[in-house]
Amino acid sequence: MILRDSALGRRRFLRALLGGWLGTLAVTLVAPLGRFLVPPTPEPESVDLPHGDFADMALHEVRRFAWGARPGLLQRRPEGFRAYVGVCTHLDCNVTWNGEQRRFHCACHDGWYDEDGRNVAGPPPRPLRLLQVEVAGDALVVRRTEGEA
Amino acid sequence: MAGGVWLRDRTGLGELSACLRRKPVPLHRHTPWYYLGGAVGILFGLQVVTGVLLLLYYRPTVEGAHASVVRISSEVPWGWVVRSLHCWTADALIALVLAHFASTLALKSYRPPRELTWLTGWALLAIALGFGFTGYLLPWDELSLAATKVGTEVPAVLPLVGPPVTALLRGGADVTGDTLSRFFALHVTVLPLTLVGVVALHLWLVQRHGMSLPMTVEAAGEPPGRLPFYPDFLYREAILWLLMLGALVTVATLWPPSLGTPGDLLAPAPAGVKPEWYFLALYQTLRLFPAHVLLMEGEVLAVVLVLAVAAALLLLPFLDTRPGGPRGRWISGLVVVLFLYIAVMSVWGYCV
Prior knowledge:
By secondary structure, chain A is an alpha+beta fold. Chain A has helices spanning 10-37, 51-54, and strands at residues 46-50, 62-67, 70-77, 80-85, 96-98, 103-106, 111-113, 119-121, 130-136, 139-144. The longest helix of chain A has 28 residues, at 10-37. By secondary structure, chain B is mainly α. Chain B has a two-stranded antiparallel sheet with strand order 1-2. In chain B, strands 3-4 form a two-stranded antiparallel ribbon. The chains are: A alpha+beta, B mainly alpha. The A-B interface holds A 37-41, 43, 64, 66, 68-71, 86, 90-96, 106-110, 119, 122-125 and B 146, 149-150, 152-154, 156-157, 164, 167-168, 171-176, 178, 265-273, 283, 286-287, 289-292, 297-299.
């Protein structure tokens, strides 16, 4: 059937159809591809530590534990236990505890944090992330601070 | 001889040979810089050979990576030489790429019509640094782990676009076994394939436009002497390649690289940790920036400044539109300042 008047030529119509189909295909592949390339790796909501493993800690001593794929730092204080995510807020290096100076140190760019996790020297822009610690029976429950995303 | 004729008839090699004989290489006091491109190509070939040999024994998993490198270095016959050669050639390759970049920058080889050659060259520099960065993690020792954590965190300081780039590099929020897998994939497949494509484009552009002449030689008016690429220039290049290979095998034998303790995701960064020499200037710059500058976080400002300088260098053909004029001379002065800054920062970063 030959149409005398047509708003759209045949070639243009077919091209739009093909292009639209290819475009839709591309768009539907982008999101799954993105999720494939960057899988979600959520931080743990909480971590249970056997209380017995940390009961013999001296005052101000710091021990390491696993907070997901990151190191957590548990410290014994006069008021109880305190925990931080042991990752420098500058560029993500793992920090270490300097018992003599009672400060945390990041060897990568010489950043320093005091015993309360506050950034006191060097390039770190923010304090260490604080975690909440509760004693629940035989376990020390370390969880994210309330109000954190 | 008959066999040679048979091969030439069927492959067209005779035409290639004739083309290479006709291709001229300009002769002037800056001709030695022309040797750098071929030298880089040969070193890359050496990396492919030593890399494939290492691939026969390397295991790209958290459990197996470090142990397989120990095995290559201590049990596999001549494995330590192959690994040592791969490490030293990587350093030499990046040094020559940077020298080639510096010489084309100083001689302003990016002048029209070679803007695309400059841009593809920049892509090759980024790919070479990408090879160095991805390869550095593969032994999975404490030093490479710390360096990768820092290096992949750098993009994240930029708001909005940064964190997705970091997540893409790491395969998640943190450096894990997934990071090792994808760095391995990048190092042995994605980057080599990309390199081949970009090198092909770069070489085609060089063939199309011919060798660039320095401005002083162009201004002299007289055309410089010419050396046929084949066999004269190529045979001279071959001498350089043999000398380079000899030097590399010598240093690889005398000073094989070390291997640190196996990487532990929870362990602190080792004391005195430093990146490879080609990242020292960036490392020292990041160390010097304070936590906050005015209202901005120090590392954000540092990364923005570094990106701005890189963007300016990338777009130099479009900024330095009159290389011989006053602006061109200013740009040349700034380039000298940049070289001095990088040199001073690298030495400082090494010494602290």
